[in-house]
Write a structure and sequence with these properties.
By secondary structure, the chain is an alpha+beta fold. The chain contains 9 helices and 15 strands. The protein is elongated and about 125 Å long.
């Protein structure tokens, strides 16, 4: 065994000596072999890059760490497109009733909007209540209500969702999603949870006619003794500021004390914001009621400007006011008939087929682009390798000179001449290709022109038919 190992080592060393002697005696051949080896390596690298790009057209495990991190980076959910939600249907079900929706006035009757918390509010600890859409369908405002079980406290925020610009009004509202909402609320209640059983909610009442302002009522109370107080707030979207209309409460107290000798501070009473005045869009109308017995006592309809500085009594009759209704809400209007659903399913199936076809064509197009890029790259590498071998041949011819400087000058001169020949050859090939393409383009234009002339040429039978009545008329004359 030892003798065999020694023999193999001796043969290996002798082989290395022979190779070293051959390379030293023929440097030009070694240089060409090295160039060929590097050329083959570059071709393999280009092929691997092409295969990897082709596989990564559909994300797979054949990718670099950088590409993986780029694909797995967190995406901005606010930029995601939200489809219109549809009820799920089992595979064995032919028809599932789907609700139909319509858009109606939100503040109808005036002052009626309220927040409905529902049975599972305390279990879920947060709900998003009914939203109101601006008259120009640019934004949707909705309240988000929170429940803190430790102290049974309810608080609220008011958020804005910008609606999509494209689509009809109903589809815009259907696609509204909390992922697209602005991160900061426009209004918020106090978040203190010290008062056990207290609640504070914000309910949008209505938009102004131009959609730049929003009337909101803040209800403050407790679970044991009901509502303590209702406040009216106006939010201005242009200036991004809010105005509390607290001055109206002082005006109502002053009026009943001064003219009716009734001190409302001794009684339980409250206000109910109704909306924007129909005849004066810069004023808010609200009603006031006192709770002195079984039936509430009407304290009049009052008006105040949107900044809460000038108050006035409108009427002591409950129905003697005109309120504008500007905001929009979406409600269920019925059920979509089965026949319409069948048509929609066929259309959706056809659209899915078109989408699949488009995806396939797009994939094939990208693969073809990658193949073209790979072939052009290999073609360019082959050309560069060919030119490199030609340069080596030129150097080999000049190496026999006795003077080193003469040899270098002669080599540089021959290399420059070879370079100029290549440039001229490539320029001629490019000009030939351009001429060929131009000729093909002109041929196609002539073909299109002939088709156009044939299409515009009048029909002989039509011409003769049109001329016949004129000839008959001439004969009659």
């Amino acid at each position: 065994m030892l003798r065999t190992g020694v023999l193999i080592l001796a043969l290996f060393l002798s082989n290395m000596a022979v190779n070293a002697f051959s390379f030293s005696s023929s440097p030009a051949g070694a240089r060409e072999q090295e160039a060929q080896y590097l050329h083959n390596v570059k071709k393999e690298d280009a092929k691997e890059e092409f295969e990897r790009k082709k596989k990564n057209l559909t994300p797979s495990g054949f990718m670099t760490m950088e590409e993986y991190e780029m694909l797995s980076a967190p995406k901005d959910k606010t930029q995601e497109e939200i489809p219109i939600p549809k009820p799920e249907k089992a595979a064995d079900m032919k028809y599932v009733p789907q609700p139909d929706y319509e858009l109606v006035r939100y503040n109808n009757p005036p002052g009626s909007p309220e927040i409905s918390l529902g049975r599972d509010f305390k279990r879920r600890r947060q709900i998003n209540a009914q939203g109101v859409v601006s008259p120009d369908y640019r934004i949707l405002v909705y309240p988000s209500v929170y429940y803190y079980p430790k102290n049974a406290v309810v608080t609220c925020d008011l958020f804005v969702i910008p609606l999509e610009e494209k689509g009809n009004p109903l589809s815009k509202v259907k696609k509204a999603n909390v992922m697209h909402r602005n991160p900061d609320p426009i209004l918020s209640t106090t978040k203190s949870i010290n008062d056990y059983g207290s609640f504070r909610t914000l309910t949008p009442i209505d938009f102004s006619t131009d959609g730049t302002k929003l009337l909101v009522k803040e209800k403050i109370g407790g679970r044991l003794d009901g509502i303590w107080q209702t406040n009216a707030i106006v939010y201005d979207f242009d200036t991004k500021t809010s105005y509390r209309l607290d001055e109206i409460r002082d005006a109502i107290i002053y009026y009943w004390k001064e003219y009716k000798n009734l001190n409302l501070r001794d009684y339980r009473w409250d206000i109910y914001p109704l909306g924007f005045d129909l005849n004066n869009p810069d004023r808010i109308v609200l009603s006031a009621y006192a709770y002195t017995g079984e039936a509430p006592v009407f304290l009049g309809n009052w008006s105040i400007d949107i900044k809460g500085t000038r108050s006035m009594l409108v009427s002591l009759s409950p129905n003697d006011v005109k309120i504008s209704m500007n905001g929009i809400k979406m409600i269920k209007s019925g059920v979509v008939p089965p026949s319409i659903l069948e048509i929609e399913e066929k259309q959706a199936k056809h659209e899915d087929e078109l989408d699949e076809k488009a995806k396939k064509e797009e994939y094939e197009k990208k693969v073809k682009e990658l193949e073209t890029e790979y072939k052009n790259k290999i073609k360019e590498m082959e050309k560069e390798h060919k030119y490199l071998l030609e340069d080596y041949k030129i150097r080999d011819k000049v190496e026999g000179s006795t003077s080193t400087n003469d040899s270098l000058e002669k080599t540089e001169e021959l290399l420059e001449q070879a370079k100029q020949k290549r440039i001229e050859k490539e320029a001629k090939a490019k000009a030939k290709q351009e001429a060929k393409e131009q000729k093909k383009l002109e041929k196609e234009q002539k073909k299109q022109q002939k088709l156009q002339e044939k299409f515009n040429k009048p029909d002989d039978s039509t011409t003769s038919t049109e001329q016949a009545p004129a000839a008959d008329e001439q004969n009659n004359q």
